[in-house]
TrEMBL record:
Species annotation: Leisingera daeponensis
PANTHER family, alphabetized: ABC TRANSPORTER PERMEASE PROTEIN (PTHR43163:SF2), DIPEPTIDE TRANSPORT SYSTEM PERMEASE PROTEIN DPPB-RELATED (PTHR43163)
Transmembrane segments: 12-31, 100-121, 133-158, 188-207, 246-270, 290-314
Membrane listed as a keyword: yes
UniProt domain ABC transmembrane type-1: residue ranges: 94-311
Protein name per its UniProtKB record: ABC transporter permease
Length: 322
């Protein structure tokens, strides 16, 4: 177990160094930041002075070492657009994105897993066929179209829910949350549904396919032959084996939701990291773009590590092999 964790940690460090190199390369090949920060009529002396302040006059190896050292400490430099520390801006936006992703993930799991189990246990039922059709539609429709339809129905026609913003928030230490206000919860519903709807259909189809395959396996037949009830077979034996691949996909999709919450945050003007990234791209704010890339990679690496450890908790055979 310890050897496995050490191996994964070494792999994670290698991955993060590769991502840091890609993020650092953005500084080298996506234009000159001095041109974005100074007016066109700036003198050569002003340009050189700013270049020295940013450390762009130093060798590439020194710049990369400084970038990696700063990233390890959570420092990504100063935003070219806002003239503020990037770490400070991310700390302000990160709670909004994490709360959105958490709400979307809970929504997807609470709907997707039960729907998938029902569809697997009743493969020829009318409701199962309806769920399969709905899941196909959910996968096929683009996310931004879903968001626009949600706004049209629930904000414009029914006027039940707000169509943009985060609502009222409460400051708890450095964390600003919308979970503790009615306005914040109402503002969270539509973005969370938009972000989680695709995941609902994906999880449902995955659980259905995996559970139907497990139900056809020999150990399930033996369990039935021993006289166990359908409930004991389906939920005591089949479901546990079904969850192994589901955990992998859900873990990766959780990272994907954080990475690709950009569309949802743009449609609903949700003040999270995705909207910050879009604004950085439009301005060419490379420190913010690089920090976003490193943060997303760190999330994926951490989630993969957690998923691997969950494997050991679910399947004791892995502990014996390790």
């Amino acid at each position: 177990m310890i050897a496995f964790i050490l191996k994964r940690l070494i792999q994670s460090v290698i991955v993060m160094l590769a991502v840091a190199l890609i993020a650092f390369s953005m500084f080298r090949f996506i234009g000159d930041p001095v041109n974005s920060m100074l007016p066109e009529n700036a003198s050569a002396e002003d340009r050189q002075e700013l270049r020295e302040q940013l450390g762009l006059d130093q060798p590439v190896t020194v710049q990369f070492t400084r970038f990696v050292t700063g990233a390890v400490q959570g420092e990504f430099g100063i935003s070219y657009r806002n003239k503020r520390a990037v770490a400070e801006m991310i700390a302000e936006r990160l709670p909004a994105t994490l709360e959105l992703v958490l709400a979307a993930a809970v929504f997807a799991l609470l709907l997707g897993v039960p729907m998938g189990i029902y569809a697997a246990l009743h493969p020829k039922g009318v409701l199962s066929n309806m769920l399969n059709v709905i899941s196909l539609i959910g996968i096929s429709v683009p996310t931004f179209v879903t968001g626009i339809l949600l706004i049209l129905v629930f904000s414009v026609w029914l006027n039940w829910l707000p169509s943009f913003g985060r609502g009222e928030t409460v400051q708890i230490g450095w964390w600003r949350t919308g979970f503790l206000t009615v306005s914040g919860l109402k503002s969270l519903i539509l973005p969370a549904v938009m972000l989680g709807l695709f995941q609902v259909t994906l999880i449902m189809r995955l659980v259905r396919a995996e559970m139907m395959e497990v139900l056809r396996s020999d150990f399930v037949r033996f369990a039935r032959a021993r006289g166990l009830t359908n409930r004991a077979v389906n939920f005591g034996h089949a479901l546990g084996n079904t969850l192994m691949p589901v955990i992998t996909i859900v873990g990766l999709q959780l990272g994907a939701m954080i990475a690709f919450a950009i569309i949802t945050e743009t449609v609903f003007q949700w003040p999270g990291m995705g909207l910050l990234f879009i604004q950085a791209v439009s301005f060419g704010d490379i420190p913010v773009m690089s920090a976003y890339l490193v943060m997303v990679a760190l999330v994926f690496v951490a989630i993969n590590m957690i998923v691997d450890l969950l494997y050991f908790a679910i399947d004791p055979r892995l502990s014996v092999r390790a």
